[in-house]
Design a protein that fits this description.
Length: about 170
């Protein structure tokens, strides 16, 4: 990925992650900035939507490339905390340059969403869903697969706890 990022990141660009990210994160910035007026809130929302397409797609593409990486725990930390954290730092810079008045709530909401979405997407990609590029899965495949994947995702912690106490 580091030697040839254009070849390894662009083809699996995660438009699914990018679109979902843009909607949720843009809405968070709109709500956080509505007290500064409709114009400021709309500007913050548009700045975030454009940035979130980049950030969400990039995190999705990197997650896809690393879905089989080992050790699993280190990959999980990188994808679920490292990448969202770096993207939030860049996001703060973008909103600073755009003079977004109320960044705090939007950044916190965005970081939490990015961390959750990265974990979920990475888990789904490890199960063969939400893939882009050469290995792309169809939206229909994802719609059919995601209910089962979602249940498995939300039951990871309870199942691990159950296994510890058996």
């Amino acid at each position: 990925m580091l030697r040839n990022p254009i070849k390894t990141i662009v083809p699996p660009w995660s438009w699914k992650a990018a679109a979902c990210s843009a909607v949720v994160r843009a809405l968070a910035f709109f709500v956080a900035n509505v007290r500064s007026g409709h114009s400021a809130a709309t500007k913050a929302m548009l700045v975030e939507a454009v940035y979130a397409v980049f950030a969400g797609g990039l995190i999705g593409a990197v997650s896809q490339q690393l879905r089989r990486a080992k050790p699993l725990w280190a990959t999980a930390i990188l994808i679920c905390l490292g990448l969202p954290g770096l993207m939030t730092l860049a996001q703060a810079g973008v909103h600073h340059l755009a003079k977004t008045p109320h960044q705090g709530a939007g950044l916190i909401t965005s970081l939490c969403f990015a961390a959750f979405a990265a974990a979920y997407s990475w888990f789904a990609m490890r199960q063969g869903a939400m893939l882009g590029g050469r290995e792309a899965t169809t939206v229909w495949h994802d719609v059919q697969s995601l209910p089962r994947i979602s249940v498995d995702f939300f039951l990871i912690a309870p199942r691990k706890m159950w296994a510890l106490f058996r």
